[in-house]
Fold each of these.
Amino acid sequence: TSTAEGVDVYDASGKNKLASIPESGVVLMALSPSTGYLVTCTKPQKDGGDGSPAKNLKVWDLSTGSCVLALTQKTVVKDQWPVMHWSADDSALMHCVTNNVHVYTKADNFATYRKVTVKGVSGMALSPAASGPAASRLAAFIPEAKGSLASAGVYDWSGSAASEPTALVRKSFFRTQGAKLMWNKTGSAVLVLGFTDVDVTNQSYYGEQKLHYLPSDPAKSDAACTVALPKEGPVHDVQWSPAGDFFAVVAGFIPAKVMLYDAACKPVYDLGSGPYNLVRWNPFGRFLAVAGFGNLPGDIIFYDKKASGACKQMGAVRSPAVTAEWSPDGRSLLTALVAPRLRVDNAFKVFTYYGEQVSTQPFATLFEASWTPAAPGTYEDGPSHPPGWQQHPHPAQQQQAARQQQQQQQ
């Protein structure tokens, strides 16, 4: 939590304070993958001494509460956060600057950096793989410049690589101003969602999007391709399964089409068409929800994905919302109608993985709703119909009943 005096870090229960960071005015922050470090950013301002830009981007060691790295970040934008990229084990930290990626390592407590030159780089993402060759893979996006095409590439950032490495896998594309880079869990592939603000075909007010696939293994570089979308039109949502073995795409003019692809970018299952613009996987990659929120009616379809990629519909419901998030145990979906997107009927609702509403709580104004996080390994994936599931009330139903009883007593 950010306070006037600084930032306080608590465990998931909110009862135990783990660290206090003496940095006021923090507007953005992010934890490292292993939660050993906290990155904070304040608004850009001048240094009180010589008028030079103050160092407003800082990395803090949560075990000591000390600042281990301080840099100047001129642009502070939530949509581009985080600007620091960590390796899976917190051993390396990377910061994208003009034509270079600066690599800091834990070995010298992030005191110095090594340059990895990627000319024109404007965005990057690190592979989340914890071991193997994929653990040292970096995906970078280079926008169009001086008549050259935009491109995305996969590079080796390890110390054994050259200071100006050649892309292991690379793909160029037309009409692309920016891109979102999305790795799968195993680091075997990265999806590149390229976009431009103007649709030259004049079919979409929201510009144009294309989805590209790049394997991280240079031996499979020929597999790099533009994803064959299930329907012409905008790409509404793309999500890798948390297991890294499939990804789902919602694309096309409404009614949009939903397609499931395997990790090699082969389409394996057609989930049909409808008023959809969002897809969410549960933490185990077992269940997924396809929904249409915002200006759409609020349909939510629940699926159980089999090992082959085939999907079985478990339920359906219509419940307008803005956000959706699966619970850490993967059995419940939390949806919320929040401000400022909508100022009326703010509430959250909880649904089972088969679409039964088990809880709702209205608010005069609700800005955000989220589950309390759980440590990895706390829950395991279970069968879609555990024994006795119909006889036992859902925990959210028990909580709802308790709230109603308390209100009646008052």
Amino acid sequence: HVECLIELAKHNRENHGDWLGWQECGTCKARFTGPVQRALAKAWFGCVESLHLPPENEEHTGALLNLACDLNENGEYPEAESLLAQVHATRLEVLGPTHIDTHVASVYLAKTYRYQGNYTQALALHIEADAAIRVMEGVDDQTKLFSRSELGLSYQYAGQLEPAHAIQRELFEARKAAVGLDNAETQEMMEQLANTSRELGKTEEAVDLFTDLIARRKRVLGELHPHTLNSMSSLAILHMAQEEYTSARELAQEVLALEEQVYGATHPNTIIGVHNLGLYTALAGRPSEAEPTLRRAIAAQIQLGFDQQTLCFFRASLGLTLSMLGRHSEAVTELRDAHRTQVETDSLGLEHPSTLRTASILGAALVAAGAVEEGRGLLTRTLAIQTRVLTAKTYDARQTAKRLEQCPPTEPAGAARRLDHGG
């Protein structure tokens, strides 16, 4: 069927100059996704290459950009980054640094940095590109929306939640007023706002947004559409934030089965789904069942060969599970290494929400392992930063406060035991 679609798309291009045949179904107008999307993008670029156009030709650059974007959507981030760097360099040389297409290429390149966990690099590039796009004359609303939306996500992933929430609220309200809630772009804005609301501890707002969003996406797109799966996965995270761990686990099981069907077992989204199931299983009081699931996610993430930030997040979940199993020394070793990596990584650093989560779990593990004062000190410092950076209402800050409350009474001076870095 893919070969038939390729032949149809070639026919459309040769006879009508219609490129949409490479991107959406000619009957129902739905955009292609998954393996079909990737195969058509590669075929499109192959067709353009067969024309022997110079690299600076916009038809060649456009096909290359489309292929890179589809590789991004299918989790092939390093290859996508390489192609987008080519597009950006070509447009910089041919069109110049102030051309709109050069700035758009910057946004796409920054998006790929973010997908690979390079949050600081992504945010810096997004801020620069969006500032230029917003003041340029003659730029269409769609391009401005795309740039602004990606900037909001880069703020969010960099741990700067308040500016992310402000941008996403602005975009969502504008789209809702302009085209209504059944519009795909409005729903994308709704999902981004709901996720940031959840991270900020605005639980009621997040629940209302997610409930409405999932119902609309299931009705319009169907249960197997990637956007529907993303929304369901986000709702499971919200269940976790409400400490409804059994509900989170049940929904994560459902989502993972669908992700394996849609993406395959090795796609980054599926691997995250495996991790989420493992984490919620541990939090639901089944740590012995969770451990092999989390180790499977870690092994798969290592196999991908990039995004150390996500790997550290997975390892923190494993450390939490090991501590729940009473294997405190193993947990401390796992968590120390993950925390050290996060602190030393430019994209995260000491005050990133992911680093603070690991620090909180490490603090509790240290207390459980007998290093009470070291653990208490780490929990105290972590909670102070979380309260300042995230607010005390967030799930992670609440968990840190709870762990601090559960610490034993302060030991007499000189009685504290400190574990060495080997646990």
Amino acid sequence: MRAVVQKGTGSKTEDVLCIVDLPIPEPRDDEVLIRVCAAGLNAIDGFRMQGVYGGSPETVPIGYDVSGVVEKCGRHATRFQPGDRVYGDVVANSIGPKVAGSLAEYCAVEQRLLAKIPEGLTFVGAAALPVAVETSVLALQALKIEPGQKIIVTGGAGGVAGHCIQIAKAPSLPFRAGEVVSSASTSKVQAVMKLGANRVVDYKSCPLGEALEPTSFDRILDTTGEFRSLKPLLKDPDAVDKLVSIHGSAFAAPPGEVSPMSVVPDGALLDFIRPALEAGHIIPFIDRFFAFESFVDAVDYAIHGRPTGKVVVSVEAPVHTE
């Protein structure tokens, strides 16, 4: 099978990534073999390219988000059947040694990491969702969002924040925030407003922490590393559990300053948002998609192009016959 792998470390995609031919993986007892139709790209792919988290072995494809069709099931993988349309984050330990990847024609994945794709959702749309929506749901749960609350989600044009805004406001989910305020650069403000944000601050004109009234928000999700300047915006600025950050810098912050959060992927999180997807309350937030052969351009754009939403690679692998 064709797969995109990492052959070194660095920031130049064409020097680090290449297409190779790998054996089609055999699913273990608790895994299913997926014929990949699309793969989503994330910031963490760029981090691994630069050697963070140990990079990616040359025998393991890059990528986390996948959508495709089940080809074969392991002995104990009973949740799915061949022919099922599925999607998920294929990397069980996001920052640990990489043992699976999505940017390949086939992928063997633990069944617990997957969910069935809702009717009406395309493979490209589905591949944009797993990392972003799983991170969003876990963050909103960690913040204990309650209906009617006033919250901030920074960096609304990003893949996580753009989906989080929709999830926080979705009437078919339990969060149902009363007001969501976000931030974006000048050219992206309107795109974030269309996601359902009640207000979007143009951070090029005024920093978010200065544009909003102090002590006026119930909860804050920081995706951009601004947590120190945002703390005074909380109604209770000393309540560290009401300020969650998924930005890497939060893990180096002194105890009591912010609640850093890492992600543990789980297909159940995708099942959780299924009603909102089926109702049209969540729309995949995609900037653009690329053909498999244009993987260099795709990764370059995802990592360096400051996309508005997610970048997806269409794979469309040939059907495997044993």
